[in-house]
Specification:
Blueprint (H helix, E strand, L loop, with lengths): L9 E5 L7 H14 L3 E5 L3 H13 L5 E4 L4 H10 L3 E4 L7 H13 L3 E7 L19 H18 L5 E6 L3 H14 L5 E2 L7 H17 L5 E2 L7 H14 L9 E4 L10 H11 L8 E5 L5 H7 L2 E5 L3 E6 L2 E7 L3 H11 L3
Parallel strand pairs: 1-2, 1-8, 2-3, 3-4, 4-5, 5-6, 7-8, 9-10, 10-11
Antiparallel strand pairs: 11-12, 12-13
The structure holds iron/sulfur cluster.
């Protein structure tokens, strides 16, 4: 897989299994791939996790596998020997540069990638003294400084297959740290908000943080992190990329109005029921579900299929043309039927 320069922004995911449980990890990777995950990272806290990569590699096809390493450089080397396509190492907790040089040599020997992945939780103000952050430390500058110093060291070993990530759990620090790194070097950037929280919180923080950076042209791979399903993380990453038109839509997009005092159909129920009934293989079209005639016909006419509500009824539109009037009870089924007709 190619990342950086003009290649489309890739979607990365991370498994949530114990990597040494090969069956569970492979099953989850397959599910993530089915959602569109393009790079998979697996946690490697133990020797058996590194060794499991050999079996996982054999079973999951070509998808790039990245070993997520903290503290122990030997696990990075072992993962590369087992067939990992890349390793993520963390400047915040792998501070012995002789050890880092060994990882670089192992990656170089296998043409593998190294991600310098720093995050706010593991950063220290001064490594030698392992000093915790003070309130007035500029976290974004520390994240960028450590990342760039690491990059300079790795590049001094004549190794260039490097990408960077600078993640904080707060959005503004992540944005600022990433901008600082992007201003200082040309290395590809992996972006995301770390420890972004449960799904609803993560969706907002990730959309704002990742979305802001992407809109500025920064970011070559993305990962949404949430305390929840890894499949939902992948879907959320695509939602962000599709909202910015950086990837083609792969799923139907519903444009529904918020409803207000002009609405005379139960639009909330209609949209919920429509989402529930829409088959998983529905085409990636735009569906407008609008409550009344104020914005309804305009939005519905712009969409591939749409309805604009009236009094206990709605007008059905297809590609801008009025098709027929629907009674409220028939709306959901009629809309699903029209959407599925657009499946090529
Ligand atoms: S489309 Fe009509 S019902 Fe929906 S929010 Fe706008 S004005 Fe209100």
């Amino acid at each position: 897989m190619h990342i950086g320069s003009d290649h489309p922004v890739s979607v990365q995911g991370m498994t949530k299994t114990h990597t040494a449980d090969v069956d569970a990890t492979v099953r989850q990777i397959h599910e993530m791939q089915a959602r569109g995950c393009e790079i998979v990272r697996v946690a490697v806290p133990r020797v058996q996790d590194a060794d499991a990569i050999a079996d996982i590699r054999k079973t999951v096809g070509d998808i790039p596998l990245v070993a997520d390493i903290h503290f122990d450089h030997a696990l990075a080397i072992r993962s590369l020997q087992a067939g990992a396509d890349g390793v993520r190492i963390n400047p915040g907790n792998m501070r012995d540069m002789d050890a880092v040089a060994e990882v670089v040599r192992a990656a170089d020997a296998r043409d593998a990638c190294i991600r310098i992945g720093v995050n706010s939780g593991s950063i220290r103000a001064r490594d030698g003294a392992d000093v915790a952050l003070e309130a007035d430390d500029d976290l974004a500058e520390l994240l960028a400084g450590k990342t760039l110093a690491y990059l300079e060291f790795i590049e001094s070993l004549d190794f260039r297959n490097v990408k960077l990530s600078l993640k904080a759990s707060d959005v503004l620090t992540t944005i600022r740290a990433t901008r600082l790194a992007a201003d200082a070097c040309d290395a590809p950037l992996h972006i995301g908000i770390t420890a972004a929280g449960p799904p609803k919180t993560s969706l907002v923080k990730s959309a704002v943080g990742i979305g802001t950076l992407l809109a500025e042209g920064l970011g070559d791979t993305v990962r949404v992190s949430m305390t929840g399903s890894p499949l939902d993380e992948v879907t959320a990453a695509y939602d962000i990329l599709e909202a910015l038109e950086l990837r083609k839509p792969t799923r139907p997009r519903i444009a529904s109005c918020p409803t207000c005092g002009r609405c005379e159909i139960d639009l909330v129920k209609i949209v919920e029921e429509f989402e529930r009934k829409l088959p998983a293989d529905a085409p990636a079209v735009t569906i407008a579900i609008m409550g009344c005639v104020v914005n309804g016909p305009g939005e519905a006419a712009d969409a591939d299929v749409g309805i604009a509500g009236g009094k206990g009824s709605a007008l059905l539109f297809r590609k801008g043309e009025k098709v027929r009037k629907l009674a409220e009870d028939d709306m959901v089924d009629a809309l699903v039927e029209e959407v599925m007709k657009l499946k090529s």
